[in-house]
Specification:
The protein is an all-beta fold. Helices cover 0% and strands 74% of the residues. It is built from no helices and 5 strands. A hairpin with a 2-residue loop joins strand 1 and strand 2.
Amino acid sequence: FKGVGPIEVLSALASYHVYEAERTSIDYGSEVNAQLQAKWKRFTGIVKYADYDADDLFTDTTKFWVQLQYVW
């Protein structure tokens, strides 16, 4: 989206992944990812979220992070 209030560009992205073994019937789990990015003047802000739901192996993991970039 362009011109959302003072924000020049606003974008959103979401994805879903299913992890399975090709040779065996092992299911590794699934993951949801989401990202929101905004640009204002020389600044770009990014907020990311990831949620991994393990099936039989590994551990459930949820992560959230924020990133700020400045370009000269």
